[in-house]
Each structure stands twice: as C-alpha cells, then as structure tokens.
Amino acid sequence: MFRQPRYSERIIFEYNDIKTDHDYWANEEEVKKVFELLPEEAIRKNEPKIPNLPESVVVRHFTRLSRMNYAIDIGPYPLGSCTMKYNFKIMERLANLKELAYLHEELPEENIQGLLSLLYTFERFLCEITGMDKFSFQPAAGAHAEFAGVLIIRKYHEINNELDYRKEIIVPDSSHGTNPASASMAGFKVITVRSNKEGTVDIEELKSLLSKRTAGLMLTNPNTLGLFEKDILEIAKMVHEVGGLLYYDGANLNGIMTYVRPGDMGFDIVHLNLHKTFGTPHGGGGPGAGPLGVKEFLKEFLPVPVIEFDGKKYYLNYNLPKTIGRIKENFGNTLVLIKALAYILLKGYEGLKEAREKAVANTKYFIELMKDVSEISLTHDKNIMRFHECLLSAKTLKDKTGVDAKDVAKRLLDYGLHPSMIYFPLIVDEALLVEFTEDETKENIELFANALKQIIKESYENPQLVKNAPYNATIERLDEVKASHPRTMALSWKILKTKINELIKIS
Ligand SMILES: Cc1ncc(COP(=O)(O)O)c(C=O)c1O
Questions:
Q1: CA 419 to ligand 1 center in whole angstroms
Q2: Atom number, ligand 1, closest to the C-alpha of residue 273
Q3: pTM here?
Q4: In this structure, which residue's CA is closest to atom 13 in ligand 1?
Q5: How far apart are CA 260 and CA 244, in angstroms?
Q6: How many Cα atoms are found within 13 Å in the side-chain-facing hemisphere of 394?
Q7: For position 497, what pLDDT does the model report?
Q8: Residue 504: what pLDDT?
Q9: Of 48, 68, 274, 300, whose CB has the highest number of CB atoms within 10 Å?
Q10: How far is the CA of 461 from the centre of ligand 1 (A)?
Q11: What would the DSSP string read from start to end of 253-289?
C-alpha cells in the first residue's frame, strides 16, 4: 500500500536565522572579484529577506518537501490532455553539459555557433515532423504559444485590412480551456462549435458559424477525446474559403507523429507541447517550452529573432517586418529545447514511430480492460478508435452510489497513482480523461484499471470511504471552496499571510 511522507514542514521564510560562520564555503577574495566585475546598479543595496541557514537545514527542508510530492519518477502519470512523458535522465545530462548550460544567449553570434546549430537542427526536425516551414522557440508553454499564435492571426488580418470585421475565433466545445482564453486575451470574440454525437466537430454547425467575421479556427487533432478529426481536410478548406486561418493546438501530436502532419492537414500555425511529445518538464514544474511553427506565408510574423543559416554560419534574424515582436528571451527556455532535441536524436524516426504506436496501443489496452465496466465507461461511439487518450464518464457510478469523478480521483491517490484529469472536456458529465503515453508498462496500465475497479467496489460497499479520500497522501481532502475562493486561495506564503490577517479582521 502506498503512503506518502508527511512532515509538519515550515515555510523556509519561517525559519529563524541560524549563525553559519563556519558553513560558508565561498572564498571572500573571489567574491570581492565578482563584485568588482558587476556594474554598480546590479549590486543589491539591502540584503535579501531570506533566513541565514546552514546548508544542512536548507537541504533537509527541500528534501522533505520533495518527498511530499508525487513525481513522474515515482509512478504512473496518466493525467490526460496535459500529461507529461517520462523525462529520460540522459536528456538532463546532455542539457546540463557546461558547454550548454553556462551559455548566455546574448553572447555574440560567433561565440554560440554550437548552440545555434543545435537549435537550427531541432527546428529542421520540428518542420519535418509537423509539415511547417519556420519555428520560434520563444514561447514558454503551450498556452503562451497559443497566445502568440493568435496574435499572429490578428496581425495577419490587420495587415490585410480585414481586422475591422474579422473579430471571431471559433473553438470546439471539447477544446482545452487555454484555446478560448488565448483568443479572448488577443481581443477576439470566442465562438463555440459543438461536437457531434461521435465527439468530433459538427461540420454542419461549423458551416453555419463560418463567415467573413471568422479570423480563425483553433483545433487539436486527435482531439481531447482521443478521436481523430477525420473531416479535417474539409474543415481546413471551409475555414480558408472564408479567409480564416487554421491554428493547430499540437498538445496531442504524440498520437499522430510520423503518421500524419498538421501542415499536410491544412493548418497554418501550430504549437507543440514538448512535455507531452518529447519528454521534457511541463511548464508548472518546468521551465517548459511551446515552440510555435508557421507556414511560409506567415514566417515574417514570428517573434524576433529567428535563427537562420547562410550556408557557413548561423545568425539571428531580426529583420521580420511583420513580427508580433518579442515575447520572451531569444530562444525561450533553451535547455528544455535541448532536452527535446536529445529525445528526437535518441529515438530517431523509428523510435518516434514506435512511441506513437505504443501510446495508441496503451490506450487501446486500457479501453479493453475497462470494456465490461459500466460505472466508469468510455463515452461516445465505442467502436471508433482512440489515439493517445480516452474519455470516460463516471456518471453511472455517481447515479448508483453518489461517488463522483472527483471522489474517484482523490481515492486513486491512496493507490499511489496520479489521478486522471477530471471534468474536462466539458462535454460529458463526470469526465475522467486518461492518457498513458508510450512509457507506461502493461503492468501499470493494469494497476490503474484494477484500482478503478476496486474503487467502484468500495463505492457500493462504503461510499463514504471514497468520498473522504485520500488517507495515504501527504495532505487529506482539501476544502474545495476555500482552496479556490478568491478570498481564501493563497498562491504564495506572502499572500497567505496577508489573507490570514484580512480574515482575522473580518471575523
Ligand atoms: C489540448 C491542450 N492544449 C493546450 C494545453 C496548454 O499547454 P501548456 O500547459 O503547456 O500551457 C494543454 C496542456 O498541456 C493541452 O492538453
């Protein structure tokens, strides 16, 4: 049985200073030399407000915190949609080579030719994999890339003098929340197209929504139900015919890479979530990266600079007249890109193909294991093939026992499993989205399916047991309202302190 460690761990700022004269390893002369090199304005006037602690205290503090965490290195992570592949250690080692890790991106071009050649190679690979013509590496995550991509759509229509009336971005009702959010942040009105009973875009409804007001359509394929949008060529034609652009949310590329390319499906702009496809850290635990690719006719809209090669040397090209501007450092989170490049080089074409095939086979095996379970069952047409992930619904379980998808997810923690995504996509009741990627073993997929079956049994025998879970995790069930209400939610220790004071005043 899984048990996560629990410590009554203080926040590091709550530690009092502990004198550390003999725990200070830096050579004072060396430190002075560094100070001499720094410009006056870069030197702090006041000491940072952090406690003065010996190394042993700091290391133990962070090690205890890490043991209270669940990680991809501990067990399965079948999150669905935003899942992260296992990160191979060799990729970390390569990215940590001092020749790469110590480089500053503002070094003169001639001093970073090696780095530029790696990134340029990576870009060529991504173009080959996606069918796009040019990439920017600046976006730090999928959502960041989406926002930049929608800004490109905006600028494109602006330059064509059509922005006055192209004010709508269409997204399917199964789309990831970041799609409508990015479109809205870029100033567009978000129009939702409903899914048909198979779970894919309803073409007839899409037809009725397309007009000269359409700036673009954002789509992921396979979609967030793991279903391939088989009408994609027709969809692309329809969007282009009314003058709109097609944006590919590449979060789900793992399901199709080496099989079919977004560029060939008619997409004009794509982003890739490297964590889901090439095994890098995800943004939140990151840093992450979300490369943004475009077709030839949109090259000049990319953030500057982009990397070019003149046949002899690599250089940074700032001369993109229609650029949306800079959105991050030159190459974003560079070392994440290096890790993804390492993944591609380690796997090769055959390895990438195998990764896709195994990811799809894993989904298929899981569906097979769950096929006779009615309480948590596959949604939509059961005969249509799922790709990288599959969507289940716990509605029958809820109707029969009162245990809902959230309770199931919490109880999975007691089994030492990262829960699947719940209540997304929004189009089915009591949704549970499951994605294993290629890394999960047969044994772990069985473990997950058996845990779900066991939880269903518990729900009939003792629903309260499931409704109060988890018991074996570091923290028990949180008060959902307090954890998400703007008055009580605290995203940092400082905010928490202010909020506690405010609440004391109110009460
Ligand atoms: C379908 C889809 N689109 C967009 C995103 C947003 O990506 P990120 O979390 O990298 O911002 C995700 C999450 O990974 C996703 O699953």
A1: 17
A2: 10
A3: 0.93
A4: 82
A5: 22
A6: 26
A7: 82
A8: 75
A9: 274
A10: 37
A11: GGGTTTT--HHHHT-SEEEE-HHHHS----TTTS---
Give, as one character, the DSSP assignment of residue 174: T
- In contact, 380 and 417? CB cutoff 8 Å: no
Residue labelled with tokens 């406690």: 51
Which pLDDT score is estimated for 194?
97
Bridge partner residues of 190 (DSSP): 169
Whole-number pLDDT of residue 286: 61
CATH superfamily of 356-482: Aspartate Aminotransferase, domain 1 (3.90.1150.10)
Query: Which structure tokens are listed for 402?
Result: 């009162």
Residue whose CA lies nearest to ligand 1 atom number 7: 142
Residue 255 C-alpha to ligand 1 middle, in angstroms? 15
- Out of 3.40.50.620, 3.30.750.24, 3.40.640.10, 3.40.50.1220, which CATH number does the structure's domain 94-344 have? 3.40.640.10
In the chain, which stretches have pLDDT less than 50? Answer: none
pLDDT of residue 22: 64
Residue nearest to atom 14 of ligand 1 (CA): 82
| Ranges of each domain in the chain | 12-69, 94-344, 356-482
The C-alpha atoms of residue 149 and residue 246 are separated, in whole angstroms, by 10
Give the helix/strand (H/E) hosting 192: strand 189-193
Q: Pocket residues for ligand 1 (CB within 6 Å)? A: 81-82, 141-143, 176, 178, 220, 224, 249, 251, 273, 283, 288, 290
CA of residue 67 to ligand 1 center, whole Å: 27
- How close is the Cα of 139 to the center of ligand 1, in Å? 12
